[in-house]
Amino acid sequence: MIRLYGLELLRGLTITLGHFVSSYTVGLRRTFKNRLRGHVRQLPTDSGIFTVQYPEERLKLPERFRVLPVLIFDGKEGEKWSSQTERCTACGICAKVCPPQCIWIVQGKDPQGKPVPKASEFYIDVDVCMNCGLCAEFCPFDAIKMDHTFELGGGERGASHIFDIDRLHVSTEYYGKTHPKAWADEEARRKTEAEKKASRSPE
Ligand code: SF4
Ligand code: SF4
Fold first, then answer.
1. Which of 52, 119, 143, 176 might form a disulfide with 183, Cβ 3.0–4.6 angstroms?
2. In angstroms, rounded to a whole number, what is the distance separating the alpha carbons of residues 109 and 146?
């Protein structure tokens, strides 16, 4: 057993040594290849230096990469959300579980002034949000999800960093494109639940 650990340790040290040496040569190799091909190549991320020349070069983000939450409405990219397509029911669970308490929700009302299960206002203070994803984990209506967008800097730390309901909403089409696996899993779960419900309902 000790011999096995020793071998694994040696293997790990060899990999580290390979990266160390490669970090001195990858720049030279890249410059040479760029000159030959006349364009900027994506740096290999499994050898040599573990960085890229951002923003010219970008790594592909993993699907589970998360930055800020977005609200989901049923529709296509380019469409505007409406009270018919929004998924949020203003239940308030996300606001309750949010550790830094950076979500504010105002429940919608019908023309007679009675509360309806819709949000008329929804705010997230993105300077306070700690990107934990708990709001998305706890939402029972798949109405709030974590998004990939991270280029949000503007140097201003005032009202523009409190995202409102218009800024927060994205379409299901957008979410399906950016999170294909999670979207496919969700669709399969919804289909199974609908089938179960249909089989339980009386003829
Ligand atoms: S986003 Fe989800 S958890 Fe938050 S209020 Fe809307 S429905 Fe409830
Ligand atoms: S990601 Fe975490 S901190 Fe940000 S709004 Fe959701 S629960 Fe709050």
1. 176
2. 27
